[in-house]
Amino acid sequence: MADLSRYIEDGKMNRVRIANDIAAGKFTQEFLSELLQKLQKPELKANYFSHVKLERKPESEWTKEYLNLLSNAVVAENFNEEYLRYLFEVAQYVHQRGQNNPQKKTFLLVGAVVALLVCLGLLAVCVRQCGAEKDGGGDYVQETR
Asked: What pTM was estimated for this model as a whole?
């Protein structure tokens, strides 16, 4: 488990590091809960702020771009427990659905292999046609006496 002191410096929360690490998928649910519990101390809770009411978007709109926007909003406009929990939820969804999806990686690998085989097949056809034109045309075959 990561060190909580990494996120609290000189009695203040490092909002950027917290938001970036949550968005990067470095937090577990347990670690987030542990950090949020520690952030309930009165001297740290004073660092929370928010200018906007949380507006949750449907999961169908949770993309990497939305995660980046939400992470920036957490740091700049809405640093509070509700937004941190929402950021964590969106980050988990995006990472599970995105690049860490083994089915997507397998699909891309199979697609690349099929594309390579098609290219090799086309190349073989071209070589065969060029060879047939040279041999059958008589222009390139000379007899020496």
From this structure: 0.64
